[in-house]
Fold these 4 entries.
Entry 1:
Amino acid sequence: APVLFSEIQDVLYVKVGQTAFKEVAETTFTHVHALSLDWHLKKKMGNVMRAIDRGQQAANMLMYYGVVFLAPAVIMGVATFVLFAVHFDQAQIAAICFLGFCSYAWSTYVVTLWRRKFRQGMNKSDNAMHDKSADSLINFETVKYFSNEDYEIKEYIHLVREYQSGGYKSQASVSILNITQTSFIQLSMLGTLSVAAYCIVNHDDGFTVGEFVAVQAYVLTIFTPLSMLGSIYTIIINSIVDIQNLAEILDEKPDIEDKPSAVD
């Protein structure tokens, strides 16, 4: 049943995502065409095209992962806390799960914010790299005329190395995030199962082995969706950075604007 509902959810979201993407693409394309010739001549088109492309994709990713994954995971977690406190009558287990849940989310938030600078650096290097390649190839005749191929290649490779350096730091920070998340999951599982085992040994509240297994299953239910929280939050942060780059383009004002009452 969960798989069926998940697939139905994905199918229903496809139309929503496509509509949102189309609106962002249309707004961006229309706005860029409305800008002045002077802006187009001064702006580096390789940079602009990459910012537009990433920004459009980011808007879709932000909505998809924020609405389809993150919101249901939080609701499921809250429901499980209530279940432990009310149905199992184990406030201690509910408190441990709540602390583990909050610690997991907080650590993910802190580490991912720290990782944000690596993404921004990668974006900057990526824009510069594509701008260099586009500018060099468009001005191929000029480069050839001055025998400047070696210089252009060295500059391009330098930008590629900067991008790769940012990618290495980003991947290393992902490993740190995964280790931190796994630690909180294991500590939460250890704490809840220790309380459940104590209740069984001391016959506390008639706690049975079946309920011990149920506690383990419910704890896994809380943290299984959260296993993707780091990736989802990273995607959301990356999307916000990409959207900010797109927003800078959309903030540009045309030199000449038609009045609302103007006739086509």
Entry 2:
Amino acid sequence: FWLKIFAACPFLSFAFSSAMRFALPTVSAGMIGYWDKTWAAGGEPGGLTMEVAFNGWADSGSARSDSAAVRDSLRGDKYISLGGGNANGRFTAARLQAALADVESGAFAGWDGLVLDVEECDSAGLASDFGAVLAAAKQAGLKTLVTVSHTAPYACSDAAALMQAFFNDGNVDFLSPQLYTSGSESQPDFTEGSGVTWDLYSASKAALVPSVVDGSQYQQVQSFFSGKGISVQGYVQWASASDVVV
């Protein structure tokens, strides 16, 4: 997601280089998820417990409109995303307040979970707005997942404060840092940013389920976080099955 305009725009698609191929998962995990891109839906790997309708919109109405067509095809728990890595996915107070109203009105009925893909913000001070959306989602019976670019949002001026709020928020069920930049890495990328270190993740109330290029990287992810005393509860895969070979 990080700085990948194609990953947040419903009109552009992504293809791996023919030279980049990855192995299937070799270890078991609790949550096994997949980012199903609404503009290029399908290609799910096997063994999924959840899928995200990833649409790239921070605007709630646009996100729901783009995701409606893929909802019934998702396997496991069906999540819908808000946010992304360009202007369409940039969070504002107005967009978050509109999302809050939609959650409270029941507009997300039929979904099992809500994802906030927090990468860009138009201003500082949105932590309380994010918190209100997460609280309303839990009140509505939705599971919640927050995903960020590496350790913290790359384009939110108060990224460190936002992450502290997410770490402390009991309404965040899952936290999924993205361990890639281009989405074609053969190894997980543990880059830190915005003054947020991986050690700070040990204080998170949410279960840690990193986003990885594909499941073959999961064992390395487990080892990295185990060295910091942090338990990993699964992963969410970016690559489609057509980009993965045994």
Entry 3:
Amino acid sequence: PSTGSQSVTGLSNLGNTCYLNCALQCLRSTVLTTYFKDCHYVDEVNERNPLGLKGRMARAYAATLQQMLSGRVSIAPVEVLGIMQKQNAFVAHSQHDAHEALSYVLDMLHEDLNRIIVKPYVERKDSDGRPDAIVAQEAWAGHLRRNSSIIVDLLTGLLRSQLRCLACGFSSVAFDPFTALTLPLPSESTSHTDVVLRWLAPRPPSRFSIACSTTTPVTFGLMRKRLAELAGLCPCSIAFIEMSNAGGLPRVSQGDQK
């Protein structure tokens, strides 16, 4: 592996810790890496923040990141994992969600590096029909009064949400800060089914992959038609036979069955 910021270093699995390894590798690929690599975090550690970890997460992540940038083949993120388990945030040797791990690390890094020593009370005002730009600016200004860190500077945004009363039509708009946004993965519109075609003639079986839509019902009649096109046969010469694992009698599937 090469050295420097372009080094490729793996993270050892310490017992179902692939979720943490995934989160740390993703975080290592952000602009936040330069901040920790150049040790800018040292002057911003907030040990007085009751919501933080007295700087332990910031120092642990910085040490882990330096190892990841060292050019070694692999390292073990024991310091970050130890802090998470000591805080009872994640049970040892259990599987967890990578997004939850990423959110926790970002939250603890933010609180450890929060430049606000004493957080003031900030009243949250209703949108009251005002333009979104004004409401968003007001929400962001209120957030900055209590939160100011490199995480806020680089990795925080506002998410717009709206509630509307179905009875009176009144709506309320809110803007909430986020550091990690969950997005749905696009679903496939087609699926493939592997079919083994056994010939009556003395020849080896043939395997075919039949593409079917996931949005419409698929019947054996449709499968027979697709298989006939692939095999160059007449659909009426193909029969689907269901074999029971329990040793029962084979059953011929009808064309309208799904």
Entry 4:
Amino acid sequence: RTMGRNIVSCCSIMLLTVVAGLIVVAISSNALSSTAPKHHHERREFVKAALLLGGGVVATSQKSQPAWADIEGVVTPILNSDGSTTNKKDNDGVTLFTTKSGLKYIELREGDETNVPPRYGQLLSISYTSYVKLAGKEEKLQKYDSVPAYVIKHGNGRTIPGLEEGLHTMRVGGKRRLIIPPKLGYVASGLGPLPVSPLGRYQLNNLLDKMVEQRGGNVIIDVELRLAMNDEADQGYYDDSSLTPEQFKTLRDNLQDSAKRAVKDRESSTSTGDIQSS
């Protein structure tokens, strides 16, 4: 009987403890909920002030709707289909450059002026984060890959054209946001950079399919050029300089002569085969 009383007493004490704990939690929740809006407002104001003092751009759009900014506070502009944003500074203070190919980019950080832009044939070490932004003002950036260190052979044709073009005028230490239209993106199989994981590749394929269905959208890459160095195994097939008219004529003549010789060789081998068969 004494043991039964002890058990009942212990149960009563535990029940009172649980009830008291619930009351404390409820009071704390009410206190936090009543002060949360104030803290959130203060935090937003602090971030806004920090961006302004640091030369950043506050994420506001032209129609008083929130724009989508990356971690550096740079707004992804809403692009016009007619390409009228060439070198245009919008209401957010972002200068958007447009090349003749249709590539658009924003300078997030200037590179070292003592360095020259990379040359085709060099090995480039980059870090990047890549997204897809589907067509529509309400669509947000959807990240599918992020790599802190990635090496490419500049100009070897295995990188998407928009990234190659964007890197070609950068300097070591610089960072850009590249806004790549579909025609400069994953236009053929085997082009990189591609996510390493199967899930990342699935996400990218799914987003590219949606771009095809919507007939719009862009691949967006935040890329930093970390290093550019010569390739010791390069055989001299890469060159940035343009051909002179004389060199172009010589190249064209050589290609035509090679094609004529190939036709003659094919015809002679065919006639030889016919004689042997007869």
